Hints:
The complex is a heterodimer of chains A (346) and B (561).
Chain A: H1 12-17, H2 22-32, H3 34-42, H4 52-60, H5 64-70, H6 82-85, H7 91-95, E1 96-97, E2 100-103, E3 116-117, H8 124-131, E4 132-134, E5 146-149, H9 150-155, H10 164-168, H11 187-193, E6 194-200, E7 205-212, E8 226-235, E9 241-249, E10 251-257, E11 263-270, E12 281-286, E13 296-305, E14 318-329, E15 338-339
Parallel strand pairs in A: 2-3
Antiparallel strand pairs in A: 1-2, 4-5, 6-7, 6-15, 7-12, 8-9, 8-13, 10-11, 13-14
Helix pairs in contact in A: 2-3
Chain B: H1 2-17, E1 46-49, E2 72-76, E3 79-82, E4 87-90, E5 96-100, E6 103-106, H2 118-121, E7 122-128, E8 132-141, E9 144-153, E10 156-162, E11 167-174, E12 180-186, E13 192-198, E14 209-213, E15 218-222, E16 224-231, E17 237-243, E18 250-255, E19 263-266, E20 278-286, E21 289-296, E22 308-314, E23 319-321, E24 332-336, E25 339-344, E26 347-352, E27 359-361, H3 366-369, E28 388-394, E29 400-405, E30 412-416, E31 424-425, H4 429-439, E32 443-444, E33 455-462, H5 474-480, E34 490-496, E35 499-506, H6 511-524, E36 531-535, E37 538-546, E38 551-557
Parallel strand pairs in B: 2-31
Antiparallel strand pairs in B: 1-6, 2-30, 3-4, 4-5, 5-6, 7-8, 8-9, 9-10, 11-12, 12-13, 14-15, 16-17, 17-18, 18-19, 20-21, 21-22, 22-23, 24-25, 25-26, 26-27, 28-29, 29-30, 32-36, 33-35, 33-36, 34-35, 34-37, 37-38
Helix pairs in contact in B: 5-6
Amino acid sequence: MSDPRMPGPWSPKRKATGAGDAAVANARCEECHKDIATEWRESYHAKAYTNRAFQRALAIEPLPFCKGCHAPEADPNSPLDQRLTRLGIGCVSCHVVDGSVIAAPATRPEGGHAVSRLSGFGTVAACANCHQFAFPAEPATASALLMQSTVLEHATGPFANIACAACHMPRASDGHADHRFNITRVADLLKGAVRVAAHRVDSRTVAITLSTSGVGHAMPTGDLFRRLEISIDAVGPEQSAIASASVYLTRRFGIRRAPGGFKRRGSLGDDRLGVGEQNPREIRLTLDREAGPWPIAWRVAYQRVEHPGKVGQPDAVIDSEVEIAAGVLAPGVGLPQVDASTTSRP
Amino acid sequence: MIDTRNQVLALFSTLWLGMGCGNAVGRAASPSPVTSLQSTPVTEATRTPLSPSAAVEPSPVADAPQPASEFFVVANGVSLFPTEGGLLLYNGSDMLAEVSGDAIVAHPEYLGTYVPEMMTNLEVVGGKWPERGLISVARPEARSSYSTVYEKSGKGWRKVTRLATGDWMTQTQLWHGGRTIALVRSMYAPDYRLAIIHGPGERLPTPAMYTAKGDGYSSRLPRVAPVAFTALTSGELFVLGVSTEDNQGWAVERWAPGSVKSVVQALPGTVRTSNYTEPFGIVALAGNDAYAYGKVSNCSDKDCRSTTAYLAHFDGNVWSEHVPPTVSEVTSFARVDKTLWLVGEGRLFKQSVGSSDWQNVPLPSVESIRKYLVQSNPYVKPLVTELSADRVHADKDKLVWVDASIPKTEIKLVLRDRPAAAVWQAPNDTTWAHSVQQFQPYRTADDSCQYRSQQIYVMLYATTKFTPKDYDYPLTRAALKGHAEFKDLVFAETEELGRHYFGAFVPEFNLELARSLVKVVQTGVKGSKPVALCRNPKQLRILGIDLATGAVTSNTPVAPE
């Protein structure tokens, strides 16, 4: 599914045949391609190593395995060269392979250097090198347990024939591909990716219906830190919670015993949107009897937790979140009520 | 006051018990259906005899005749954990019991309360029980994990080793000279090593390695990526795995007694075009008598829905294929004298040595054993009529044990080819006790707060996820207006275990002042249920209140630590 000719994580081969001093080479790219470089500087590719969430996770697990993708220009097995780690996924990380500058078939005039135009560049297979991979100790087999499975999700989804870049690198007015990769962690785009409707089934139960909209993979996808939180609170005096319930849509992993052999990590479940059968999917949450006379606030949030060990639990430390939709359903009168809005907070 | 406290605790129960993953409020308070079977709390060692009795003879019902089974239910709610010294039963969360002679013994020190990590992470049970038990719990750490090993001697547990992050103790075996040997794998590399966990040290067997050369680089790899291993007290060691040198055929790495160097032998019929072959286990009865099993496939990488069972025998020199029954996999294997036993696709088979026929061995029908299950158990659906065999094991007394389950339920049963006097039920109270401990962490404020190094915190409200981040509690401020006695209190939004609260820190362990605040807010804010607690929650935001006017004087987030 991946394309070994395309760029990917650090490898000894990259060191031997890459961009020379990657920091110097990257600066040279930025000198001429200023507009692209400005976009890239805003992207999470540029912040791949330095962003706070990664640094926190790396502090817990300082693995060369992680550094390989987050700082592909730096040898993860050696003391890290900060010039190279700060580069994150630089211009050279994607555009220089075997000492040659590579790019997609021409959309802009050639610049001051030779470019190898490759049809495979910018394809799903090229992104797969870093955006789909197994857990580190998994055997290199087709049945290996994937830590990230975005490409597989995409291949089985409704937009399988559309390349990642079509959504994640939209064309600017002058025709160049936007290098901000502005989909993930952009609140408005995330909000637009999930449609939500809620109604109060009875005095204590709320049904929340979710469906993805224009998303070519599971929602959320990517690393193990992400989840959708669906929660309801019966709102008492002073905005207090009389009763609460929540559910988390995410992937869950645990340790399972292989028949007759060792225990190994296994998937315990995956209830993210866009996985499996139901789209839209209805989730019903029921509160304690005390909730009956009170309004019920509902909320859907895209969250990134500090540590994936608690990604399915309510007491996970939230690193960041985007509220996808929220609303309040009044008690009693005229059930069922429908609140299909993405209600803003009062 | 008692009523109020109970109400407040009920509120807390409501809020906290409802926070289990995917659970609506209150659901977590109920013990699981499996553990709600007849049981008694384990406070001291209990001994349940397993001597034969007609009381547990299966009794097929007239309208659903089932072939008679030679297996009998002996325990409910547990799975087998065979060890070198005998058999243990594990309830999957927090309790081990021991098969001791013809009885099952549930020792309280085998409970999760003594080794809390056992609750969910028990990975390996080894050692020579009951004198010296070993357990290894795997601590998942995000992408990696590591094993912590505990040893039981007498009545106590002690931590004997914590392996490095990424190192897993995958299995232990009793080896020669009273040693217990473990196979340790790394989460980050295909390497593995053998380690002596108990007993005198000696030169360790070393796995065979080779240098794999790629395009511009090379790396050292073990010749066999291990999947299972077994050891004999006579000193032999066998590691079953996948060869890293060819196209993923199976291989067994074998050490003779006293040898640090191994012999690697490929298993016939396992080098296929597909990656979907999967070795599952290896059983050695002697240095020249071992079996390896799993599943293999001939299909392509693109489409592989069918696999076939695989079984091979080692005679001391070579491995040769042994024709298994017609199933898609062999997931467990045992031999008693001249009878081979195996499990495949949930069915139990046996074969006499010298015969080429495999006989499907029926398990008791669900109807015939329903009397051992709680009558109203919602997990026993009427349509489910068959037990599924999960594992087969032969004990030192040549009894055959089967781990069985009812498909699509949580029900686990242990069967044996000799009946027991009574079916042993896994106690459920342990799980319940942990739930209470885990989800009700609050202590109502009293004079003990200061001895606990905790402040008195009057929790006024649990906030909702919808509560604005700068909400300034107008009703509460109105209630406090004119109450200058609260001038030294710090009103703050706080956070614990992912939930936010609004409350007040009371200085100098002034219990009377705390109770006074509870009363004032309870009276002034209709429907509120404040409670004074011993607690040190994390402060998120301080709300300054002018107690003369009830106005907000400041509303300041607390800088993160």
